[in-house]
Amino acid sequence: METVASSKMENHKSLNSRDPPTNRALTPLRVLRGVTCLMVLVLTAFMMLVYAGFVTAVIFRFFSIHYSRKITSFFFGAWLALWPFLFEKINKTKVVFSGDNVPAGEEHVLLIANHRTEVDWMYLWDLALRKGQIGSIKYILKSSLMKLPVFGWVFHIMEFIPVERRWEVDGVIMHQMLSSFKGLRDPLWLALFPEGTDFTEQKCIRSQKYAAENGLPILKNVLLPKTKGLCACLEELKDSLDAVYDITIGYKHRCPTFFDNACGVNPSEVHIHVHRIPVKDIPTSEDKTGSWLLERFCLKDKLLSDFYLQGHFPRGGTENDLSMFYLFYV
Protein backbone atom coordinates (compact mmCIF):
# COMPACT_ATOMS: atom_id res chain seq x y z
CA MET A 1 0.00 0.00 0.00
CA GLU A 2 2.75 2.43 0.89
CA THR A 3 4.46 1.53 -2.40
CA VAL A 4 1.45 2.89 -4.27
CA ALA A 5 1.46 6.11 -2.26
CA SER A 6 5.20 6.53 -2.76
CA SER A 7 4.85 6.07 -6.52
CA LYS A 8 2.50 9.03 -6.47
CA MET A 9 5.15 11.13 -4.82
CA GLU A 10 7.57 10.07 -7.54
CA ASN A 11 5.07 11.39 -10.06
CA HIS A 12 5.14 14.78 -8.30
CA LYS A 13 8.92 14.75 -8.39
CA SER A 14 8.81 13.99 -12.12
CA LEU A 15 6.60 17.02 -12.71
CA ASN A 16 8.75 19.26 -10.57
CA SER A 17 12.00 18.11 -12.17
CA ARG A 18 10.74 18.88 -15.67
CA ASP A 19 9.90 22.50 -14.93
CA PRO A 20 12.02 25.46 -13.87
CA PRO A 21 11.70 26.69 -10.28
CA THR A 22 9.03 29.32 -9.75
CA ASN A 23 10.98 31.63 -7.38
CA ARG A 24 7.74 32.73 -5.68
CA ALA A 25 8.92 33.12 -2.11
CA LEU A 26 6.66 34.40 0.64
CA THR A 27 8.08 37.91 0.89
CA PRO A 28 6.76 40.71 3.13
CA LEU A 29 5.47 42.45 -0.01
CA ARG A 30 3.46 39.37 -1.02
CA VAL A 31 2.03 39.10 2.50
CA LEU A 32 1.06 42.78 2.48
CA ARG A 33 -0.51 42.47 -0.95
CA GLY A 34 -2.39 39.30 0.01
CA VAL A 35 -3.75 40.81 3.24
CA THR A 36 -4.75 43.97 1.38
CA CYS A 37 -6.61 41.99 -1.28
CA LEU A 38 -8.41 39.95 1.36
CA MET A 39 -9.44 43.14 3.18
CA VAL A 40 -10.81 44.55 -0.07
CA LEU A 41 -12.77 41.33 -0.70
CA VAL A 42 -14.16 41.29 2.85
CA LEU A 43 -15.17 44.95 2.71
CA THR A 44 -16.79 44.66 -0.72
CA ALA A 45 -18.65 41.55 0.39
CA PHE A 46 -19.88 43.38 3.49
CA MET A 47 -21.03 46.34 1.37
CA MET A 48 -22.87 43.97 -0.97
CA LEU A 49 -24.58 42.32 2.00
CA VAL A 50 -25.62 45.63 3.55
CA TYR A 51 -26.81 47.41 0.41
CA ALA A 52 -27.97 44.55 -1.82
CA GLY A 53 -28.17 41.28 0.09
CA PHE A 54 -31.31 41.80 2.15
CA VAL A 55 -33.19 43.57 -0.64
CA THR A 56 -32.39 41.08 -3.41
CA ALA A 57 -32.50 37.84 -1.42
CA VAL A 58 -35.36 38.63 0.97
CA ILE A 59 -37.56 41.55 -0.15
CA PHE A 60 -37.60 40.65 -3.87
CA ARG A 61 -38.27 37.01 -2.98
CA PHE A 62 -41.72 37.91 -1.65
CA PHE A 63 -42.68 39.07 -5.13
CA SER A 64 -40.71 36.76 -7.45
CA ILE A 65 -38.21 34.00 -6.68
CA HIS A 66 -37.06 34.13 -10.29
CA TYR A 67 -36.18 37.85 -10.23
CA SER A 68 -34.79 37.61 -6.71
CA ARG A 69 -32.33 34.96 -7.88
CA LYS A 70 -31.54 36.85 -11.06
CA ILE A 71 -30.70 40.12 -9.30
CA THR A 72 -28.80 38.32 -6.52
CA SER A 73 -26.83 36.44 -9.18
CA PHE A 74 -25.89 39.72 -10.86
CA PHE A 75 -24.67 41.56 -7.75
CA PHE A 76 -22.91 38.71 -5.98
CA GLY A 77 -21.60 37.26 -9.25
CA ALA A 78 -19.81 40.58 -9.75
CA TRP A 79 -18.21 40.13 -6.33
CA LEU A 80 -17.17 36.54 -7.04
CA ALA A 81 -15.57 37.73 -10.28
CA LEU A 82 -12.99 39.61 -8.20
CA TRP A 83 -11.44 36.31 -7.07
CA PRO A 84 -10.33 35.08 -10.53
CA PHE A 85 -8.80 38.50 -11.15
CA LEU A 86 -6.92 38.20 -7.86
CA PHE A 87 -5.60 34.79 -8.87
CA GLU A 88 -4.77 35.45 -12.51
CA LYS A 89 -4.01 39.16 -12.79
CA ILE A 90 -2.62 40.20 -9.42
CA ASN A 91 -0.98 36.94 -8.33
CA LYS A 92 -0.04 35.94 -11.91
CA THR A 93 -1.28 32.37 -11.54
CA LYS A 94 -1.58 30.78 -14.97
CA VAL A 95 -4.87 28.90 -15.43
CA VAL A 96 -4.82 26.41 -18.31
CA PHE A 97 -8.03 24.78 -19.55
CA SER A 98 -8.19 21.59 -21.58
CA GLY A 99 -10.62 18.95 -22.80
CA ASP A 100 -14.07 19.91 -24.05
CA ASN A 101 -14.91 23.51 -24.85
CA VAL A 102 -18.20 23.75 -23.00
CA PRO A 103 -20.90 26.10 -24.31
CA ALA A 104 -21.31 29.61 -22.96
CA GLY A 105 -25.10 29.34 -23.07
CA GLU A 106 -27.51 29.01 -20.20
CA GLU A 107 -27.08 25.34 -19.38
CA HIS A 108 -28.19 23.56 -16.24
CA VAL A 109 -25.17 21.46 -15.24
CA LEU A 110 -23.73 19.46 -12.40
CA LEU A 111 -19.97 19.77 -11.93
CA ILE A 112 -18.06 16.90 -10.32
CA ALA A 113 -14.40 17.51 -9.48
CA ASN A 114 -11.49 15.96 -7.64
CA HIS A 115 -10.68 17.61 -4.30
CA ARG A 116 -6.90 18.00 -4.19
CA THR A 117 -6.72 20.86 -1.70
CA GLU A 118 -8.84 23.31 0.28
CA VAL A 119 -9.07 25.86 -2.55
CA ASP A 120 -10.10 23.69 -5.54
CA TRP A 121 -13.62 25.07 -5.47
CA MET A 122 -12.36 28.63 -5.92
CA TYR A 123 -10.79 27.83 -9.29
CA LEU A 124 -14.14 26.72 -10.67
CA TRP A 125 -14.97 30.43 -10.60
CA ASP A 126 -12.33 30.96 -13.30
CA LEU A 127 -14.24 28.68 -15.67
CA ALA A 128 -17.67 30.01 -14.67
CA LEU A 129 -16.53 33.60 -15.26
CA ARG A 130 -15.34 32.79 -18.76
CA LYS A 131 -18.74 31.25 -19.53
CA GLY A 132 -20.74 34.13 -18.08
CA GLN A 133 -22.14 31.92 -15.31
CA ILE A 134 -20.24 32.99 -12.22
CA GLY A 135 -23.43 34.25 -10.59
CA SER A 136 -25.13 30.94 -11.32
CA ILE A 137 -22.61 28.65 -9.62
CA LYS A 138 -23.59 27.00 -6.36
CA TYR A 139 -21.61 24.55 -4.23
CA ILE A 140 -22.30 21.61 -2.01
CA LEU A 141 -19.68 22.33 0.64
CA LYS A 142 -18.90 21.65 4.28
CA SER A 143 -21.07 23.57 6.69
CA SER A 144 -18.12 25.14 8.54
CA LEU A 145 -17.47 27.38 5.51
CA MET A 146 -21.04 28.64 5.72
CA LYS A 147 -20.33 29.83 9.27
CA LEU A 148 -17.49 32.16 8.26
CA PRO A 149 -18.16 35.83 8.99
CA VAL A 150 -19.12 37.81 5.87
CA PHE A 151 -18.04 35.16 3.32
CA GLY A 152 -20.37 32.59 4.87
CA TRP A 153 -23.24 35.05 4.75
CA VAL A 154 -22.63 35.55 1.03
CA PHE A 155 -22.67 31.77 0.53
CA HIS A 156 -26.07 31.57 2.26
CA ILE A 157 -27.52 34.31 0.05
CA MET A 158 -26.19 32.53 -3.05
CA GLU A 159 -27.92 29.33 -1.89
CA PHE A 160 -24.90 27.11 -1.41
CA ILE A 161 -25.81 23.76 0.17
CA PRO A 162 -24.10 23.01 3.53
CA VAL A 163 -23.22 19.42 4.47
CA GLU A 164 -22.03 17.85 7.73
CA ARG A 165 -20.63 14.69 6.04
CA ARG A 166 -23.28 12.63 7.84
CA TRP A 167 -25.88 11.40 5.38
CA GLU A 168 -28.68 11.08 7.95
CA VAL A 169 -28.39 14.87 8.35
CA ASP A 170 -27.21 15.88 4.88
CA GLY A 171 -29.77 13.84 2.94
CA VAL A 172 -32.71 15.86 4.26
CA ILE A 173 -31.04 19.23 3.66
CA MET A 174 -29.82 18.29 0.18
CA HIS A 175 -33.18 17.01 -1.04
CA GLN A 176 -34.93 20.08 0.38
CA MET A 177 -32.59 22.58 -1.27
CA LEU A 178 -32.17 20.64 -4.51
CA SER A 179 -35.94 20.52 -4.96
CA SER A 180 -35.96 24.34 -4.98
CA PHE A 181 -33.69 24.28 -8.06
CA LYS A 182 -36.13 22.22 -10.15
CA GLY A 183 -37.46 23.88 -13.27
CA LEU A 184 -35.27 26.96 -12.88
CA ARG A 185 -35.71 29.51 -15.65
CA ASP A 186 -32.17 30.66 -14.95
CA PRO A 187 -28.95 28.72 -15.59
CA LEU A 188 -27.56 26.54 -12.80
CA TRP A 189 -24.02 25.34 -12.17
CA LEU A 190 -24.05 23.05 -9.15
CA ALA A 191 -20.60 21.88 -7.98
CA LEU A 192 -20.02 18.65 -6.06
CA PHE A 193 -16.80 17.04 -4.79
CA PRO A 194 -17.65 13.31 -4.57
CA GLU A 195 -14.53 12.42 -2.54
CA GLY A 196 -16.12 14.29 0.36
CA THR A 197 -12.82 15.67 1.65
CA ASP A 198 -9.54 17.02 0.33
CA PHE A 199 -6.73 14.66 -0.68
CA THR A 200 -3.84 13.88 1.66
CA GLU A 201 -1.34 11.03 1.69
CA GLN A 202 -2.88 9.53 4.85
CA LYS A 203 -6.40 9.68 3.44
CA CYS A 204 -5.09 8.12 0.23
CA ILE A 205 -3.58 5.18 2.15
CA ARG A 206 -6.87 4.63 4.02
CA SER A 207 -8.81 4.81 0.77
CA GLN A 208 -6.46 2.31 -0.90
CA LYS A 209 -6.76 -0.06 2.07
CA TYR A 210 -10.54 0.04 1.86
CA ALA A 211 -10.39 -0.53 -1.90
CA ALA A 212 -8.08 -3.54 -1.51
CA GLU A 213 -10.34 -5.07 1.15
CA ASN A 214 -13.45 -4.65 -1.01
CA GLY A 215 -12.13 -5.54 -4.44
CA LEU A 216 -12.21 -1.98 -5.78
CA PRO A 217 -9.63 -0.22 -7.98
CA ILE A 218 -6.54 1.11 -6.20
CA LEU A 219 -6.35 4.84 -6.94
CA LYS A 220 -3.14 6.85 -6.47
CA ASN A 221 -4.14 10.46 -7.09
CA VAL A 222 -7.77 10.62 -5.95
CA LEU A 223 -9.84 9.07 -3.18
CA LEU A 224 -12.68 6.62 -3.74
CA PRO A 225 -15.76 8.73 -4.52
CA LYS A 226 -18.95 8.64 -2.47
CA THR A 227 -22.12 8.16 -4.48
CA LYS A 228 -25.00 9.37 -2.31
CA GLY A 229 -24.55 13.07 -3.05
CA LEU A 230 -24.35 12.51 -6.80
CA CYS A 231 -27.38 10.20 -6.76
CA ALA A 232 -29.39 12.78 -4.80
CA CYS A 233 -28.50 15.51 -7.31
CA LEU A 234 -29.41 13.37 -10.32
CA GLU A 235 -32.61 12.15 -8.70
CA GLU A 236 -33.89 15.61 -7.80
CA LEU A 237 -32.68 17.41 -10.93
CA LYS A 238 -32.90 14.70 -13.59
CA ASP A 239 -35.52 16.61 -15.57
CA SER A 240 -33.70 19.93 -15.24
CA LEU A 241 -30.05 19.10 -15.99
CA ASP A 242 -28.51 19.31 -19.46
CA ALA A 243 -25.11 17.81 -18.68
CA VAL A 244 -22.49 16.86 -16.13
CA TYR A 245 -19.10 18.54 -16.36
CA ASP A 246 -16.44 16.12 -15.14
CA ILE A 247 -13.58 18.36 -14.01
CA THR A 248 -10.05 17.29 -13.11
CA ILE A 249 -7.75 19.81 -11.41
CA GLY A 250 -3.96 19.61 -11.25
CA TYR A 251 -1.43 22.05 -9.75
CA LYS A 252 2.11 23.18 -10.46
CA HIS A 253 4.36 23.06 -8.57
CA ARG A 254 2.77 22.59 -5.21
CA CYS A 255 -0.80 22.31 -3.98
CA PRO A 256 -1.79 25.66 -2.48
CA THR A 257 -3.32 26.55 0.84
CA PHE A 258 -5.77 29.43 1.12
CA PHE A 259 -2.96 31.69 2.35
CA ASP A 260 -0.74 30.62 -0.58
CA ASN A 261 -3.56 31.60 -2.89
CA ALA A 262 -4.12 34.98 -1.29
CA CYS A 263 -0.42 35.92 -1.33
CA GLY A 264 0.35 34.49 -4.77
CA VAL A 265 2.99 32.04 -3.54
CA ASN A 266 1.38 28.93 -4.99
CA PRO A 267 0.28 27.60 -7.36
CA SER A 268 2.23 28.92 -10.32
CA GLU A 269 -0.14 27.08 -12.66
CA VAL A 270 -3.59 25.53 -12.32
CA HIS A 271 -4.62 23.03 -14.98
CA ILE A 272 -8.33 22.29 -15.37
CA HIS A 273 -9.51 19.49 -17.65
CA VAL A 274 -13.22 19.47 -18.55
CA HIS A 275 -15.25 16.62 -20.00
CA ARG A 276 -18.88 17.38 -20.86
CA ILE A 277 -21.25 14.41 -20.50
CA PRO A 278 -24.90 14.76 -21.58
CA VAL A 279 -27.13 13.79 -18.68
CA LYS A 280 -28.96 11.27 -20.88
CA ASP A 281 -25.72 9.24 -21.05
CA ILE A 282 -25.58 8.78 -17.27
CA PRO A 283 -27.32 5.70 -15.78
CA THR A 284 -30.31 6.33 -13.54
CA SER A 285 -30.18 3.47 -11.03
CA GLU A 286 -28.12 4.04 -7.88
CA ASP A 287 -25.90 0.98 -8.40
CA LYS A 288 -25.12 1.83 -12.01
CA THR A 289 -24.57 5.49 -11.13
CA GLY A 290 -22.06 4.41 -8.47
CA SER A 291 -20.21 2.24 -11.00
CA TRP A 292 -20.24 5.08 -13.51
CA LEU A 293 -18.81 7.51 -10.93
CA LEU A 294 -16.07 5.07 -9.94
CA GLU A 295 -15.15 4.67 -13.60
CA ARG A 296 -14.92 8.45 -13.98
CA PHE A 297 -12.57 8.64 -10.99
CA CYS A 298 -10.40 5.86 -12.41
CA LEU A 299 -10.07 8.02 -15.53
CA LYS A 300 -9.24 11.03 -13.35
CA ASP A 301 -6.55 9.00 -11.63
CA LYS A 302 -4.97 8.15 -14.99
CA LEU A 303 -5.27 11.77 -16.15
CA LEU A 304 -3.48 12.99 -13.04
CA SER A 305 -0.73 10.36 -13.34
CA ASP A 306 -0.06 11.56 -16.88
CA PHE A 307 -0.24 15.18 -15.74
CA TYR A 308 2.40 14.65 -13.05
CA LEU A 309 4.69 13.03 -15.65
CA GLN A 310 4.05 15.36 -18.60
CA GLY A 311 3.11 18.63 -16.91
CA HIS A 312 -0.17 19.11 -18.78
CA PHE A 313 -3.53 17.56 -19.60
CA PRO A 314 -4.43 16.52 -23.17
CA ARG A 315 -6.18 18.88 -25.58
CA GLY A 316 -5.10 22.09 -23.86
CA GLY A 317 -5.84 25.69 -24.74
CA THR A 318 -9.64 25.57 -24.84
CA GLU A 319 -10.16 28.94 -23.12
CA ASN A 320 -8.68 32.40 -23.57
CA ASP A 321 -6.71 34.32 -20.96
CA LEU A 322 -8.76 36.39 -18.55
CA SER A 323 -9.48 39.94 -19.68
CA MET A 324 -11.44 42.89 -18.30
CA PHE A 325 -14.17 42.02 -20.81
CA TYR A 326 -15.29 39.22 -18.53
CA LEU A 327 -16.33 41.69 -15.82
CA PHE A 328 -19.05 42.87 -18.22
CA TYR A 329 -19.96 39.24 -19.02
CA VAL A 330 -21.20 38.52 -15.50
Automatic annotation (TrEMBL):
Keywords: Acyltransferase, Membrane, Transferase, Transmembrane, Transmembrane helix. GO terms for cellular component: endomembrane system. GO terms for molecular function: 1-acylglycerol-3-phosphate O-acyltransferase activity. The chain crosses the membrane at residues 31-59, 71-87. Residues 1-21 are annotated as: Disordered. Pathway: Phospholipid metabolism; CDP-diacylglycerol biosynthesis; CDP-diacylglycerol from sn-glycerol 3-phosphate: step 2/3; Lipid metabolism. The keyword Acyltransferase applies. InterPro entries: Acyltransf_C (IPR032098), Plipid/glycerol_acylTrfase (IPR002123). It catalyses: a 1-acyl-sn-glycero-3-phosphate + an acyl-CoA = a 1,2-diacyl-sn-glycero-3-phosphate + CoA. Residues 109-223 form the Phospholipid/glycerol acyltransferase domain. Its EC number is 2.3.1.51. CDD domains: LPLAT_LCLAT1-like. It holds the Pfam family Acyltransferase. Belongs to the 1-acyl-sn-glycerol-3-phosphate acyltransferase family. This is 1-acylglycerol-3-phosphate O-acyltransferase. It comes from Rhododendron griersonianum.
